[in-house]
Amino acid sequence: MTVYKIIIEISVYTPLLVIIVGVLRYRFLKTSQKRLFWMVCAISVNQLTSEGLIWFDVIASNLVFFHIYILVETIFITFVFSALMKSVVFNSVSRILLGGFILFYWAQIFRNEGMNHYPTYTHFVESLLVLFYAGSYFLKTFKEGRAINLLKESGFWISTGTLVYFSSNCLLFLFNKFVSDLSANSFILIYTVHAFLTILLYIAYTIAIQCKTNHSLS
Asked: Are 102 and 49 in contact (CB under 8 A)?
């Protein structure tokens, strides 16, 4: 098995780290951590279902499940950051943005006649939305001016993981035409880099689940 395939395979099973740690520590988790845990559970069920249907030749493509994944992830992440921020203004703005995203999500599906296409624009808009959430967390944290150990804050790891992962998604969108013209080997390399970033994202989520403190933003 090549290094590329090993990295891609590891990225598929990395979410299990979050689930295992979440189960062991569930009664100690804060609201944001519990929402993160359930988000990863929902994403894993969606992924395992698609992999199983493909394995048994029930479906030929998992694009439908990728659409579902984007919607589930965006909704859960919105509520994760709402719990982290504890801000009436942020909650109101995030709900409006989420509502706008859901309208855009369905508009793209009807515009492209179903879910059997790659949701390029939907994924890009999701990335922008999550980057806004992560940026809002860091901005408010630094504005507080209190001395805290960010490495022990679940919000820091959630925000850092999403910042790195979703910013890469934005770059892939911006260079979408270039990527589509690459050779098969070059595309595999880029997909491997994306898989590696997925591993980093779920490692960050795992650390966030383990954090025993949760920085209260007020």
From this structure: no
